[in-house]
Amino acid sequence: MLIHNPYDVETTPGGPGSAPSGATRFVGVDVGGTNIKSVVLSQATGTPEVIEKAECATTGTTPVEILQQVAEIARGHLDRSATPATLGFSLPGAVDRRTGVTGVMPNLPGVWHGVPAVDIVSGITGVQTSIVNDARAFALAESRLGAARGLRVVVGVTLGTGLGGGIVVNGSLLEGTSGFAGELGHQIVSLGGARCGCGNRGCAETFVKTQALVTATGLPSAQAVFRSAAQGELAAVSAVGTYIAHLAVALANVHTLLCPDAFVIGGGIAEAEAQLFHPLLDKMKALIMFDHPTSVHLRKAMLGPWAGAIGAALVASDATAALSISSAGRWTRAGVDSVEWA
Q: Which of 156, 151, 126 is nearest to 308 (CA)?
């Protein structure tokens, strides 16, 4: 039995049929522990445009129920589409993009290990379906359509419940031979340190997560901790300092390996802006020995909470070879209003 969820659909002027004739459409669905966001991208020529947005609560309590909800949301968009479309969806955990099978999903209910997620969703929708990790989707979206448009090597960083990431080179996700490259939060920064949710010890995410801030201060949220730190409350100042110090180590390690054009940072904690970015940049520069410190660039993400869904739609577009992402300058557009710390 499918789970039907009412949700509000926001469309561009002219409605779902307003895209240019012959435009190709891609549906992207981003699954979170609380909400599911979805978009439709349309592209005739040039840069893809978002022509629909929707959001609803995540109501499923098992993997199958959540995947059924993804399929129902996608079908709503597909039914309104005047042209054939394909689907991409993102999940907050381990996914094997080649097989469409999931692994650990710490922020979703149920046991996800070994679930054939793509087969379940595509079996309901009847359309070509692709899957991607949510942080990788974020990185792809920001590199092509957001704060890092036109840059060659981009590292996406998501700061919220934990520390997520993704690497984009020349407009394509760098996933490695296994497909799991980009797990910034699971590099070890403290030998024998605290146990991480992944099962290892001393991962960067054991320090760079919302719960670390909350536990250290007794405050209800990361935002509350940063506000208290800005007011000089000592426990909050210490907690924020520890958070930023370990994030700086993690990102400096990544910079030493990749020397990216920029780090694009998003997620709820990125809203701290200068309170986060200024000390983070200073600490990263102090840790980098094999590159000039002025080569470190931090940009705040531009696409907001829709980046994951947009990235999932871009993954769908790549899977159908509808976009030639290798074309020089394809993603460059003048006048990008990104905020950069350098």
A: 156
